[in-house]
Amino acid sequence: MEVVIVPDAKAGGELIAEAMAQLLRRKPDALLGVATGSTPLPVYEALAAKVRSEAVDTSRARIAQLDEYVGLPAEHPESYRSVLRREVLEPLGIGMDGFMGPDGTAEDVRAACEAYDRALSAAGGVDLQLLGIGTDGHIGFNEPCSSLASRTRIKTLTEQTRIDNARFFDDDIEQVPHHVITQGIGTILEARHLVLLATGAGKADAIAATVEGPVAAICPATALQLHPHATVVVDEAAASELELAGYYRYSYAHKPDWQGI
Ligand code: GLP
Description:
The structure is a single chain. By secondary structure, the chain is an alpha/beta fold. It has a single domain (2-253), classed as Rossmann fold. Helices cover 33% and strands 16% of the residues. It is built from 8 helices and 10 strands. Helix 1 (9-26) packs across helix 2 and helix 2 (41-52) runs parallel beside helix 3 (80-92). The longest helix has 18 residues, at 9-26. The mean pLDDT is 96. Bound molecules: 2-amino-2-deoxy-6-O-phosphono-alpha-D-glucopyranose. 2-amino-2-deoxy-6-O-phosphono-alpha-D-glucopyranose is lined by residues 35-39, 66-67, 132-134, 140-141, 161. Residues 35-39, 66-67, 132-134, 140-141, 161 line the site of 2-amino-2-deoxy-6-O-phosphono-alpha-D-glucopyranose.
């Protein structure tokens, strides 16, 4: 994988937004896989600025959801569908007709998971999947020890993830659902380009394990090592535990055919 160390979150956002813009110029109806959480917000802000300045056209772009809480009504402000509508679709000027996501309120959740997995393939697959990372190394909601070959399915959140996400639910962990639907790790690995963004010292251990640790389900993000085109963008704080940070800087600076990330 390629590791890019950026000075701060804003620079990471700019870099990834530019990669998305280049993709959309090449392929106007590209399917962008997006993540929730605080980390990707600078990406969406930078891409929205490009849309406003007409540096990129999103009129045919499509957006795919990574994961969702089970049981939260779609209109709940913290359902990931609502969050993505607010933070991604509206700022980018993309309507719900350009959006695909799993149904977290389905009576048959299992069938909804399988249907979403199939829909992603039928749509031609995700062109670029943006990922954040949990402090425990989860991607999407694939908690530690998720199968590295897993498909879209229902998962139970760890206590730590519910604690981490309580900030979106009035700091009340009781309001954080226990169950979620997440694209599986095998599903995520089918995207053509994986871009993981991590910022802040709280992610430093998870990033060191992801980039330099052995591939192991205990740290689901290590599955990125198996992907032919994975980019890990980290700020200085998130890079602070990387043994080979000097090499990643050198390698990126000497990239022979620089075409973005
Ligand atoms: C949630 C999401 C993940 C996200 C993670 C980290 O668990 N399901 O997709 O990467 O939070 O969030 P943050 O970026 O706010 O640290």
